[in-house]
Amino acid sequence: MKMGLLHTGLLLLLFCSVYSYQFKSRAGYGLFVQDPELEWGRMETVIGEEMSPAPAPKAKIWKSASNSGSSTPEAKKFPEYVRVESSKYPKTAFKPEKGARPLPAWVKEMLLPPTVAPKSGIASGKAAVRPKLIEILCHVDRMYVRIRREIFKTKTAYKDLKLGKCPVNQGTKVHYYFLYLLKTDCGFKKENNVDYLSISNTLHYKPSSVIVREIPFDIPLQCKFPRNFHSYKIGFHPQLQGGTVYKALQPKSSVSLTPQDASGNEITGSKTYTLGQPMYFEAKRSDKTSKSGDQRMYINKCFMTASENPNSNLKYTVIDKYGCMVDGKMTDQSKFLSDSSKKIQKFSVGAFVFKDKLSSSSSSQQLYMHCAISMGKLTPTASSKACNYDPATKKWKELYGDDSVCTCCESSCPSGQSKASSNIVTSRSWKVGLSGNDGYADVDPRMKPFDADTFSWEDPDMAEHRDFLNYWEHDY
């Protein structure tokens, strides 16, 4: 007898297990829970709590000081937030502006919706609610669908029922269930609209048997998640306090420093140089500030940084000592250039990058040029000059005047009188590429060949570059 009861219990347990797991083997993916009814109820509770509006704050009653027994009427109770579609209402009605104006009628209707009286039930009691044949639950990461089994006439209808590309993966005596996350490859379609986010799919039923007892159907399903653009809690009135705010005015510099190409045209767009390629610059004054022709522009100092801030710690000086092109001792591409007008000063610098800024993740560096510029007399002095280094004679030469003013470039040059007209001017940025591809440059490097008469390995200035030239891979 006991053995018979034991066998009966085991058979019942086996039947329940087969019934609960009959859809799991067909799905192969998706969510699987022990009780789909409990999971459905849990998600209904979660969604209901998230969608229910928060209660409005209680209105405060302010008592009058003149009459302690009276009070102002209770303020109208507004909902804490209202979901509205921005396409139906113009946003300009909520734009803050000076003064006061009446709200449009449609705003009042939106904030104070008319109360709807509850419908009176049937005298004998509430009417019987017809069960829904197909239900859908939408959440931020999943879509649940269930369909009543009574719709179908065959017991194996679940085999031909699909949500997009996914089959039924749960079932009870009453419902077939689709419990799937949105990341599952079921064919969920995501669409972004102005007022809502839409997730859609289609419920298919296509009987595969040779005979048909039910009509095939395709039912589109859609989840809408509204977008809340604005929320208003309580009104507020800012308290304005008088006073005076002082701000130092910095007049716009009358001198400009612009990068140029080899032909003297200003570079307006983005520009990337290759290493060693000459970069050209022009410093000039605007026409409105130009004075008589007895003046000349002088560049007292120039330095380059990897930051727009001229006070950056990482900097490299190319012009120093009140007009000495000190970088000309490193490369013959750095030099002052002559021009028809002495109110304009042009110069070139060989492109380089900062070693401390080298990075494997970046193919270029962004650089800035900062120059201290002043106007002075046409005749150069030791404190106002434009001196280039001549590697052939190993001497300094002034661009327009007497070379004797450049002798201090090897030591220190006097500052002269106060540079009242001197100011720091920063150029637009440019980039120096770390690759030798042709796409980085559209100007030839214009390399100057060595003169056989002046070139010598015994030259102490050239001996240190012997290994560099021997192992340099020429590609020109």
Automatic annotation (TrEMBL):
Residues 1-20 form the signal peptide. The keyword Nucleotide-binding does not apply. It holds the Pfam family Zona_pellucida. One of its GO terms (biological process) is binding of sperm to zona pellucida. One of its GO terms (molecular function) is acrosin binding. Keywords: Disulfide bond, Signal. GO terms for cellular component: extracellular matrix. Residues 137-394 form the ZP domain. InterPro entries: ZP-C, ZP-C_dom, ZP-N, ZP_dom. This is Zona pellucida glycoprotein 3c.
